[in-house]
Amino acid sequence: MSRIDQFESLFKAAAHPVYSPGEVSIRKVMVITDHDADATGAYAARLRAGFLQTLAEASEWIEVPAGQMANLGELLALTERVQPDLAITWRNLHSSAWRWPYSLGAVLEVLTQHAGFPVLLMPRPEEQPLDALPAATDEVMALTDHLVDDHRIVDWGLRFTRPGGELILTHIEDSAAFERIIAVIGRIPEIDTDTARELIGRRLLEEPREYVASVAQAVTGAASTVRVREVVRMGHHLAEITGVVQERGVDLLVLNTKDDDQSAMHGLAYPLAVELRTLPMLML
């Protein structure tokens, strides 16, 4: 390695990722259900008073019960007119397919990818009654496969964490992908495989940990009572995430659903939304 390359590597290693806070304003909330108007109103009121008490400052709640919209096109047109900051709905809207836990339903899939606002995916009342929901969002988990510099997911996670609660910033490095890289390195005589495994593995986890530390510092500096925790490790994505959700008693999972390179839902968002059907999810 030349001296220039060595200097460049040292310079890059010394650069630490830093969280840059942004504001999350939620004033208009749209609640979309396939129940009648009375049931929808009661559902929204109970969410405001309990699980979603962090949204108390929202000044306008727009309820969209069954029968108000004739089709998906009308619903999308309504969201264009109203421009909500957040939509709340559940899986398999206007469909009996919720009885078979293998899909999300056309309304949710289109809404999460087409709309410019986040969608809070709640369990269907038929699968989990409101009484079974946590009393509040005390344990919020923000998940991404590129935690470093993903400021938006942190902003939204903090916004939904109740004062005194915990925001768990989670980054799972795919162990299978890592092992494939190490296997390739093992076929290159000029590179020591054990050294590469140690150094690459350490670096992959160091950056997200440094980023989480910068988030914790920013939150403390803002005099917030929210505690920031980290889960940064190697492992199998779906299994590790499911394990963390159960271990930490997560009340709300925050994750990205949009991908600039494709129209389909981003990464693990779809399988997680299908598998974890009783866990509320904020889909950005």
Secondary-structure map with pairings?
Blueprint lengths: L2 H12 L13 E5 L4 H13 L10 E5 L7 H11 L3 E5 L15 H9 L4 E4 L16 E5 L7 H10 L5 E9 H11 L7 H29 L5 E9 L1 H12 L3 E4 L13 H7 L5 E3 L1
Parallel strand pairs: 1-2, 1-3, 3-4, 5-6, 5-8, 6-7, 8-9
Antiparallel strand pairs: 4-9
Helix pairs in contact: 6-7
Structure description:
The chain is of the alpha/beta class. The protein has a single domain (19-283), classed as Rossmann fold, CATH 3.40.50.12370. The chain has 9 helices and 9 strands. It has a 9-stranded mixed β-sheet, sandwiched between helices. Helix 6 runs antiparallel to helix 7.
The number of distinct structural domains comes to 1
Helix/strand class: alpha/beta
Arrangement of strands in the largest sheet: 2-1-3-4-9-8-5-6-7
Order of helices and strands: HEHEHEHEEHEHHEHEHE
CA-based shape: globular
Distance N terminus to C terminus? 42 Å
Largest sheet features:
9 strands, mixed
Question: What fraction, in percent, of the residue positions are helical?
Answer: 40-55%
Indicate the radius of gyration in whole angstroms. Answer: 21 Å
CATH topology (level 3) name = Rossmann fold
Low-confidence stretches: 4-14
User: Which architecture would the CATH scheme give at its second level?
Assistant: 3-Layer(aba) Sandwich
* Strands, count: 9
Keywords, separated by commas or semicolons:
globular, 284 residues
Characterize this entry briefly.
By secondary structure, this protein is of the alpha/beta class. The chain has helices at 3-14, 37-49, 72-82, 106-114, 151-160, 175-185, 193-221, 237-248, 269-275, and strands at residues 28-32, 60-64, 86-90, 119-122, 139-143, 166-174, 227-235, 252-255, 281-283. Residues 4-14 have low confidence and may be disordered.
